[in-house]
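Q: For a teaching session next week I want to show students how multiple molecules come together into a single three-dimensional assembly. I've collected the sequence lines for a complex. Could you give me the predicted structure tokens for the whole thing so I can convert them for display?
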Amino acid sequence: MNTKQLWKNCLVEIEAGISKANFSTWFKNTSIIKEELGIIYIGVPNEFVRDWLMNKYHKLITKTIADAFENMRAVEYIITKIENAAKPEVIRTTETVEKELPLKDLYINPDDNLNPRYHFNSFIVGTFNELAYAASQAIIDSPGTKYNPFFIYGGTGLGKTHMIQAVGNSIKEKYPNKRVHYMTLEKFANDFVNSMQSNKANSFKEKYRKYDLLIIDDIQFIGKMEKIQEELFHTFNTFHENNKQIIFSSDKHPNYIPELADRLKSRFAAGMIVDISEPEYESRLAILKVKLRELNVDLEEELVEYVASSVQGNIRELEGSLNLIVCQYRLKNKPLTLAEVKNLLKNNMKPKKNMAIKEVVKIVSEYYKLEENSVYEKTRKKEIVKARQVVMYLLREDFNVSYPLIGQKLGGKDHTTVIHSCLKIRTDLKNDPQLLQELEQIRIMFK
Amino acid sequence: MKLECSIEKIKNGISQVERITGKNLTLPVLNSILMIASGKSLKLRSTNLSLGIEIEMAAKIEKEGIIAVPGSVLNAIFSNISQNENVNLEEENGNLLIKTKKSQIKIKCTSHEDFPTIPIVTGNSFEMDSKKLIEGIKAVYYSSSVSDIKPEISSVFVYVNQDNLVFVSTDSFRLAEKKIKIKGLEEALHILIPFKNIAEILKVFGEVSGAISVCYNKNQISFSADNVYLTSRVIDGIFPDYRQIIPKDFSTDVVVLKQDLLNALKISNIFSDKFNQVNLKISAKEKVFELSSANNDIGENKTYLDAVISGENIELGFNYKYFLDCFQSVNTDSVSIKFAEGKPIVVSPVSDQSFTYLIMPMNK
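A: Of course. Below is the structure for the complete assembly, covering every listed component.
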């Protein structure tokens, strides 16, 4: 039975029976919400209307509906939100919008903490993140069963937060009944500390366990928080047992999060760990084009290509550079030339990596937990040899230092030794994913 | 209906009830005040379908009855009767006769059949001092958004947090929060009172002293004192989780005398542009707190204030209106202003934790 049609018919009848003023005051914005076992639920905008309909018009309404719908047993009134009441458009002039900064984050949905801005519609998939994207789509299809937990890691500004929030938003759309919650680890930790202070540890546990999907961002900071690790461990177990999805993001692989308890490490590894690397040229180009479309700006192909090729690395910087150009473009109100763009980006560009050899040695030895000096020593201890080879490889590959100079600086080695080391690492890289990861981690530390 | 009561009482009652009569509504009877004489009292009732009010007063009832009288007419009459004695009211053939010693008035009444009831709120309830309620609302309500686009922020948000009844409102450019200590409240209290109803609530209970009983459910809230019952619709929505936008770490910390700042702002106002922008510059080392504004047509000014400054130098612009607004809630002589790069400015009275005010700086 069509309740909409039924109510429409009834309203026509009711309108005939009462004065126009009464009708438009009391019956405007009413509707039949649902019909259940013969009970008709009528939605009204507020308690004033409900009271009055019940006191004054109940008989009339009941009779009218009963005439049109035989199975009716009773009529009840519920207060509902009016969804599409005519609302005035935004009146504020565009000038003030640009001038005044609103309080940020005010429009984040307070219920689940998700920012509706992050959506897969505006997410760009390239080779650098396609695995993560595919996995996240699988999670949206069947949350909690396929890849649980889902662990994304990658450097700063590569779209981790965008991706995990987009998963949250998509799941919310697809399964409106599921309760999604996004938070940073910091929030989780603060909540925990607060609940300890006010002796409400139990309500803390309850609070998070009622969700169907939990997304925790920036988990890498958990290293030094022992108590929080324990709490997260329990929360995690509850989620996993009940087949509820849980998603983490971090800037490091879980194995490299310092002081992470083994039991958590192994649990992270039980699901799916994917990395997002830096976008390559084509992806950068695609990202820029999507951004331009969002900003509604037309920029010459040549300029876009220049930005894509010159701003490497993370997406956030890419967006920043683009914003700078768009801002200039709007200010001048005429197309920019390539020279102008070059000039604009001059300051924004990362200086060519220039690092002292000593610095590299320091970082690598720190990473492998060795004494810095031991790398320069003449020793054939296995772990030191490996570290030394890594240093040589990185100096050659990333910093273009000549073979003889590398040899000379690392304790007077012959340049052929250096060539051999570089070659060895290069071949090892092909068969040893562990080594590959190590190198990536070290490279992150250079930044 | 026939009764006798004191002019002063009915005059007060009518002036309050009349404000809430529905204006410009499709149902004409809502323009009226409903007078109910029964038992030993006279009740005055009015509603605009968002707010409803009922005021009860003692009267000598000779004959019970109900009539609906146009509110504006009734109010105009009583506001101009100034004798301090009793008045006789009597219904006669659909007219209301008002008799005092020195006047006789006859008003046409409307049919009271169509006058709606006002909802009696059932649900959780608590009691509080009316002064505290007014203090809480007054401290924040001016920050509400006045547009209807987002109803949840064109309202005053009231909730309970650890023995505090917290009042908050924001228009997304600034935010005011006031905490009032009250013990034994239920944690689940979350109410959004529409901004449009706030002024009336302030007006009605501003004059009431003593305890008010507040009753609420998810659609409606009511306030009742000795002889006044007022009920308002509440907004069905979720107020933004504002606590996460209050900055916790600051780079610069300033304390100034409230009156100094107020005067400086008022001068800056003369020269501010159409965005009401005033610029603030703090040099920590030289201990300078400088307010400046410039207007192409009028001129420009700079004011230097004595201030206790700690932290880093900072330079920013803001809308002076937002700043001025909060001083109505600052009762101390000096105010503390805290800054953090790119974050809202936090203003609070020195040594008073209960009031916090955020202002978003302007784009340069």
